[in-house]
Amino acid sequence: MLIRDFMAREPVCLQPGDTLHQAAKIFSKYEIDGAPVVDESGKLVGIFTKTHIMRAIARGMPVETPVCQLMRRQVYTILEDDVPENAWEMALKHGIGRLPVVNRQNRLVGMMTRTRLVQAFEQKYKNIISFLNEVLNCALSGICAVDGKGMVVIFNRSAARITGLSVEQVVGRHVEEVIPQSGLLKVLQTGRASYGQKIVLHGATVIANQAPVIYEDRIIGAVSLFHDVSEVEALSQQLETVKRMAQELDTIINASSEGIALFDQAGRVLKLNRTYEQVEGVNGEEIQGLGAKELVQKGYLSFLAVLAALEKKGAASVIEHLRTGREVLTTATPIVDEQSGNIRRIVVNCRDLTELAELRRRLEEERARYHAELESLRWEARGAERLVAESSSMRDVLAVAERVAPFDSNVLILGESGTGKDLLARFIHHRSTRAAGPFIAVDCAAIPENLLESELFGYTAGAFTGAGRQGKPGLIEMADGGTLFLNEIGELSPGLQAKLLTVIQDKQVRRLGGVKSCPVNFRLIAATNRDLEQMVARGTFRRDLFYRINVIPIRIPPLRERSEDIIPLVHHFLHRFNKKFNVFRRLAPETLELLQHYSWPGNVRELENVMERLVVISVDEVIGPDSLPEQIRRTALSVLVKKGCPEPALLINLYRQLGSTRKVAAALGVNQSTVVRWLKKHGYNLSASRS
């Protein structure tokens, strides 16, 4: 609605040359208080009112004075294509009772009074109310609204249709008289909305949403929106029955130990149960809609029976070796329409003939796994006893390990091969808060690179050729809740380093061939005998991975740097192997002396192997130095000679074995004169021995 729709057209106007007398006669004739002044072209030039006449009389001006001398030239106008709201705002702002209306050329076309503005607003609001009523009546949901006293003010056609009451019966009456079950009175009283309430209105079951109508923090009414669910409820009950029957049927089919598949009349896949998916190694959803012929061409041979049944239009059975390694008996049975005789569906039963062998294999695997876990537990139970630490350097290592064990920080154990890095890792695990969890040890150097990835991350069914049909969890998954020990981490390839970094950062692992990651919670302990910092500098080890694992570095010194631990370790291994082989062996002092002064390049592992050898091959109860490997005897004796304190019996035995001081000196890496001097010092007659 615009100003032109409500303005007074052809208003009474004055000319600039009209006199005061003429203006007064016009005002009296038309009973007006003022009039616009326009020029010959119709353009508005001013406004002249009774006030101007009274001012002229007060000043004694003659009645022949033209109005142009007194009129107000600054005139507030409004355009004819403007809206009433702007005119009302202008009238209030400037205290004007009437506004001249002009066109775009500033020519006067009408007058707008406050009375006409009120009429414009009244018409506009009537239009809005009519429009809103039509909107409410177009709504499919029933709408009922009450004022603050509970009197019904809105009741749309859908509400009348649902309840069976006419609008005239309801509007203007108290809601409790006509619809006592509506709940609107409670909303008025409490001011609380309610949603999704199932109520019965005049025999119709509806779902109602009710809310208070609030204006300026005051409840002025309440409204209810409701829709009829009687038919929907009946259909929902029927649908729920059908759905429950379908679920029960699906459960029965999936619980079957035989594979079951359903095809349409054209041989296209409709459904496979879980057993069939496992036997054939296929995802039923992925092949849904594919034809049996296409599936056979892709290598799914169990569907040959479907082709045979379609060809002969009768039941068909085939025995095939599947690419999953299984031998199956598949029977396809058509379901024929009794009236037309056409095939409607084909039901396929797939019986796994290798199931017993598979069960036997699983049993063996489980037994092997439990055996391995039992051995691991036994080994762990002895772990604390295996850590022998008499030297200050080794005691410092254990002290650091003891302090860091309760915390989940990553630990990097550094040390040469054979120093006992795996034992220290287990030591930390058993003193951590994860001691009750698994300890999964992975030797990164012992597993071929092409297998290490699947061992660490696991794989899904069919992830690669030869993958198990049920998939396999990786060692990282198995470490969930416990400790993952990666020994020789420096041997990882760059690709595995990147994947391992992602797992360490995100604490999530994704199996090979999988699309979803699963969370894992483990404490990482890594170990290596390599210089990772040099590898980082050379670019063969990721810098970011190094910083991730090198949170708490612990270096185990080699055995040659902690000679105080050699004799305690010797007695430890001697006791263990005596007990293991049910013998009793002792070491001669000379043997202990040589073991003490050997450098042990293979560290504790070499010492352990030597002690086992001595216990096994020694015939006498006392193990003499002659039972030691020749390399150990000579190397240790050379050290003793250089220190100037060799055991006489050891030196004499070596001289008797080699036959000359020159050979002894060469074997020990010393001067011949040194050998001669030591033999003479201990009273050995060289000349007598030569004769």
TrEMBL record:
MF terms (GO), sorted A to Z: ATP binding; DNA binding
CDD domains recorded: AAA, CBS_pair_SF, PAS
Coiled-coil ranges (or none): 353-380
Keyword terms of this UniProt record: Aromatic hydrocarbons catabolism, ATP-binding, CBS domain, Coiled coil, Nucleotide-binding, Transcription, Transcription regulation
Entries under SUPFAM superfamilies matching the protein: CBS-domain pair (SSF54631), P-loop containing nucleoside triphosphate hydrolases (SSF52540), PYP-like sensor domain (PAS domain) (SSF55785)
Domain Sigma-54 factor interaction as annotated: residue spans: 387-616
PROSITE patterns per the UniProt record, alphabetical: CBS, PAS, SIGMA54_INTERACT_1, SIGMA54_INTERACT_3, SIGMA54_INTERACT_4
Lineage top rank: taxon: Bacteria
Domain CBS, chain residue ranges per copy: 7-63, 71-128
PAS domain residues: 128-179, 245-289
Biological processes per GO annotation: regulation of DNA-templated transcription
Cited InterPro entries: AAA+_ATPase (IPR003593), AAA_lid_NorR (IPR058031), CBS_dom (IPR000644), CBS_dom_sf (IPR046342), HTH_TyrR (IPR030828), P-loop_NTPase (IPR027417), PAS (IPR000014), PAS-like_dom_sf (IPR035965)
Keyword Coiled coil attributed: yes
The keyword Coiled coil belongs to this UniProt entry's keyword annotation: yes
PANTHER family per UniProt: C4-DICARBOXYLATE TRANSPORT TRANSCRIPTIONAL REGULATORY PROTEIN DCTD (PTHR32071:SF57), TRANSCRIPTIONAL REGULATORY PROTEIN (PTHR32071)
NCBIfam families: sensory_box (TIGR00229)
Protein name in the entry: HTH-type transcriptional regulatory protein TyrR
